Amino acid sequence: MSGSEDSPFQRIRLQQLLAGIDTKKQPVGYDIMLANRRTFVTLEKEIWQAVDNIASQNGRSRSGLVTQIDRAKPVHTTLASAIRIFVLQYYRNALDCAEREERGEDRGIFRSARRSPNADSTDWEGVASPDTHLIH
Q: Does the pLDDT of residue 17 top 70, yes or no?
């Protein structure tokens, strides 16, 4: 974009983003089946809605998507944190794709998402891309 145009994200004021947040709400917990084990994950309602939306857009169940996130996350990252990072990165990548498309740039920029060989790595770029498979 040229210097005078704002990105879609810049057009949204912070007040609009925060207007719907109820600070008195409690996080919501769900039992999730991960491969052969059951685990309980507590996240904000908005994060669960985003997980369900991403899963639906990619033909997966909530449990299926969370299982893939669990397998791809760094060893020392909690599942709740990994889910939040995944959702954030997914929508960041979607915004990047939209901006590149507006500029007519190549959309095939995301590398395959694989768990980093460095177990402590927090490099999630490409893990959550609307242009590629979510996680291989």
A: no
